[in-house]
Design goal:
This protein is α/β, with parallel strands linked by helices. It contains 8 helices and 9 strands. The protein has helices spanning 8-16, 27-36, 55-62, 82-87, 105-108, 122-135, 153-162, 202-215, and strands spanning 2-5, 20-23, 42-47, 50-51, 64-72, 75-76, 91-94, 144-149, 169-173. The strands form 4 sheets. A 3-stranded parallel beta sheet has the order 3-5-7, covered by helices on one side. A two-stranded parallel sheet has the order 1-2. Strands 4-6 form a two-stranded parallel sheet. The longest helix has 14 residues, at 122-135.
């Protein structure tokens, strides 16, 4: 496996885990991949990134051997040029999150897809990963770079927003016991209403919150 990233922190973590990795420097990185693959190019390139730019997918084509596969895991732009993919007859595939059974109501709510027909469902994928972590064969501890108490969650979001220092996984920790909440009595001076929002991830921050803001109306 050959890992490529635009940040030195992620590359260092991959190297520490025993993976050949390099910060992407264009042609010199392409040359390194060719040397690593004995001049053929990669059998498959897995794109795990998030960007509106199509440059990432086009970059993947440069690393492929003839008739290789490009697997899109992340959310990247796909305004592609024909030539790079046609000349090497590349295949593009999309990996749906979690595996077979994802978005299938009969599976997610009622647990269909028996193992004899579909071996690696999303739940069995999770089971396998948890078993590997429990046995120590899969180490993920080094993927967490920061810990914040839940009361300091704003510092975690600030770190992600301004990129003041390198980070990978960020863990929010909760107190052992929940502090007693002061009672709130509504008085005649209070008016209007408020909404609490928990979990401002990519989908919430990019889709739900902006939509809610534009659709909100005063409540009398």
């Amino acid at each position: 496996m050959f890992g490529i990233d635009v940040g030195e922190t992620a590359v260092k973590r991959a190297r520490d885990a025993g993976i050949t990795a390099q910060v992407d420097n264009g042609q010199s990185t392409t040359d390194a991949v060719l040397q690593w693959s004995r001049g053929r190019g990669a059998d498959a390139v897995i794109i795990c990134a998030s960007s509106k730019s199509s440059a990432i997918a086009l970059r993947a084509a440069e690393l492929c051997r003839d008739r290789a596969v490009v697997v899109v895991v992340g959310d990247v732009g796909l305004d592609l040029e024909r030539a790079p993919f046609y000349e090497r007859e590349l295949s593009i595939r999309f990996a749906r999150s979690y595996g077979p059974g994802r978005y299938e109501r009969s599976y997610e709510e009622w647990g269909g897809l028996p193992a004899g027909y579909v071996r690696w469902t999303e739940n069995r994928n999770f089971e396998s990963i948890l078993d590997l972590i429990a046995s120590g064969r899969l180490v993920v501890k080094d993927l967490v770079t920061h810990h914040f108490a839940i009361a300091e969650a704003d510092r975690a979001y600030e770190l992600m927003s301004n990129g003041s220092e390198p980070y990978l996984g960020i863990v929010l920790t909760y107190p052992d016991s929940e502090p007693e909440r002061p009672s709130v009595e509504k008085t005649s001076q209070q008016s209007g209403s408020g909404i609490g929002w928990i979990g401002a991830g990519n989908f919430s921050g990019g889709t739900l919150l902006p939509h809610s803001a534009t659709q909100a109306s005063p409540i009398s």
